[in-house]
What we know:
It is a single chain. The protein is of the alpha+beta class. 23% of the residues lie in helices and 30% in strands. The strands form 9 sheets. The protein has a 6-stranded antiparallel beta sheet with strand order 3-4-5-1-2-6. A 6-stranded antiparallel beta sheet has the order 23-24-25-26-27-28, with no helix packed on it.
Amino acid sequence: MINTAALFSTAFLPGQAGFDTDTITGLAEWRLDTPMLFKLLIGAGTQAVAWPIYGDGEDCPCVLAAPMAQAQASWQALSALMDRPRDAAAIVARAGISALLAGGQAWLILDCVQLIPHDIDTPQYAAGLETLRAEAQALHSALQRGDKEALAPLLAAGAASPATGYWSATADAQLADVEELDANALPFLQGLEVREWVEDALCYAVAAAGQPDILGLVTPYGRWIAPLSPGLVHLDASDADDGWITFATADKPDAHGVMDLNGTVVLAPAPGALYVISPHLAQQIAPDGASRLLRLPDGTLLIDRVDNIGEREDGYIDIERQTGDDERNVCGVIDKMGKVVVPPAYSSVQDFGTKKKIAIVSQRIDGRFLFGLVDSQGELLAPCQYEAIDCATTSSPPRLRKNLIFAIDAQGLACMLTLDGKQAFVPLYPPAHHLRGVAVQSDFLYVVKDGMAWSMDFTGQLLEQFDTVENFKAAITAQLSEAMGLGRKKPVRRRSFTPAQILAKADRAQLRAMAALFLQGDADLAARCVDITLDELAEDDPEEEYEGDTPAAACFFLLWSTAAHTLGHGTTLDWKAVDEVPRLVQHIGLPALRDFSWAEREDGDAMAEGLAAIAAHLAPHQLRLINMHGGEDTYYLGVVRAQDAAAFKAAALLAALRPVVY
């Protein structure tokens, strides 16, 4: 549901004899906020009354009511202050408002229930309603004294303005949830091509008759959010949940702008691509590749030269500046308003903890990636001088043990860090095992002294000697293997082929058809994919070998690798890389994945649940998630069109692969 303010007229108030919801007449509405004109018309002398279209509002005051005569007088006084309308649209709009207010009903109701973010019949809701009443009173007073400065947005308002709202006798569609209706029964859709129902925008996406490339959005009660008249050829409402719709016009199809859910343009089209990041942020990419972060809705430049942006598990947003060398790219973190939390000065910034707002950061120093700690104000607590800092995954916050964090310094010595980044003791001993979960327990560490494994407490005091390091490692490894049920299985020998052997069997036409399957039918991109793959094979080390049960299997895998890692149409994920699932769009750059989120994720969910969530998100886009070769610890992921899924699976099976289509 899109939160909306609405004006209604009624002959009786709830609780009075004669009140009937069937006689309520819709006057005006506006999505997302309450227009100034709505507040002015309610004006002074309002009263809070129940409003039975809301279950909780049947017995509780939740809307504001004012005599219609007062609203008519306010409109007449405001009209006298306004300049004469200069165009036909403004004349029609003012006449329409006058006519609707003069409809003969006794009361005007301002319904803003959806815009007060509290439950009806709570002190917080009552306070929100009182604030609105005070704003209405202030505007009424300004009108009485002729204060043009206070009324400036209304006096300057055109025919369609956020200050006046949208006026129509059919606004009473807001009396119930807006939902898809039978398009054949709606007269205003006749002669149009109805493309789809866009749930996030509560609109039909339509195309003009005879001009299938001209697009629009219209509600089930006939309000045009994106009219056909501007000649829009790109209209993307996938970010409507964030409050925005991106668009481009026929005269500038490569320039993209942003409108809100009322159809008000907030960012005029500019050359290049445009991506909504959050309700308050957009990324604009110029044709030359230059990227910048803008604030919505005013378009203020927040950060220049920002190449990659992605949402994080901790609620913040990653930003990255590219340097031409992936290992030297710099990363930072911003909040959802665009405020810099961690400046872009690090090779990576992991998630902040939910309670202790501390994150692990890394920097490349003298050819090594070293780690440190930073807080949510961007202050560096521990400098990047540690070989490792304990965490659950490569994106997780630091793991706390008795409010201390295990780390290994640049010299390979074990220590514990306090929450302000200080060393709890001087590091003297290296950890006794390469597995961090074994190196540190809940109350002590395993370290090495003079070739022997010892336990050590978190203050640096040695506790107990165990055995030689070699025996200790062997014992721990055996325990872990037994706990995981790992037996001594004879490794399966896989076949492999040299570049020459693969090239000898390569059929370009067949390869292009195969490549087109995981490039969503793009024949030109498929041809490029094949050329890149075969050219690299021809230039490869002749003694290099590629695994596969057949040369075709090895070549098919190399094609997928080119499509994935060179062309951005796939990715490789480890079986335990669950935290990478919500950030899939950073790995597979497809428009259908831009708004993917794993909203239903629960503690303990594994890759299987994550892949199922991706597949469910792709299904309405007529796309299927694929794993190139199932039964392994690595997922070789891509996306195919639903219509190509069967052909992909057949081709992969012929190449002796074990594909999985989700």
